Amino acid sequence: MTGGARVGDDRVTIPFDGRRIDIEIAWVRPEHAHRTDRPLVVFLHEGLGSVSMWRDYPRMLCEAGDLRGLVLSRYGYGRSTPRPHDEKWGADFMHRQAREALPALFDALEIGPGRRHGKPWLLGHSDGGSIALIHAASFPDAVAGLIVLAPHIVVEDISVRSIAETRRAYLETDLRTRLARYHDDVDSAFWGWNDIWLDPAFRQWDLRPLLPAIACPVLAVQGEDDAYGTMAQIEGIHRYAPRASLLKLARCGHSPHRDQPARLTEAAVDFITTHT
């Protein structure tokens, strides 16, 4: 444990941006946490996600593959430290999560090469998938593999349109009330994500130059009915990341783990087993 980090039963205090923040965590199948011979999967949530919004999927996957799992809520989400309402995130917000916050958390929990829990697998959804890609490109020797669900590598028009519609729903429907069940400060979670995605400056955001640096195997998954991105996202990963494989799912929207959990689990377990 380094950098003044502190670990509790469901919180880890880490240094970030010149201060100390709390990160909500939950171990999946904690009774098996000591089995360091089994792969560890770290679940990275979507732009409005949290520990609780994964529901039962982490356990479903870990039981199917006899895996260990760790779920976390990023800064600003779930039961983690909320983002102050006057703090505006920049276009590098996912890079900062991948290069600063996630390494600090892994240091605190002894995750990584030569440490207690070894190299992790990262399973990221949407923004969490993008963060997984950035982390693996930035620390190519530190990750065993990636499974990215509906990740973003560029900003598409379809993404901006759907995120603008989500903003309308947050202001005019019961979406805010429904999301409030999953976040200590729902406005912190929503506006941190929504404001930057709809900022015109964010249209230049592009992960493609980073992808060739990813050394680990990557399974990139996209639903054919995704309202937040097209197949160009995972096809770009396949083009630029050296060891990428694709899974395209019919009858599936932006959340493969909700829309096609059995098919995704089968593919993910097979991919992890093959590359372990």
TrEMBL record:
A GO CC term attached to the entry: membrane
Entries under Pfam families matching the protein: Abhydrolase_6 (PF12697)
Limits of the AB hydrolase-1 domain: 41-266
InterPro entries given in the database record: AB_hydrolase_1 (IPR000073), AB_hydrolase_fold (IPR029058), AB_hydrolase_sf (IPR050266)
Domain of life: Bacteria
Protein name: Pimeloyl-ACP methyl ester carboxylesterase
Organism: Cupriavidus plantarum
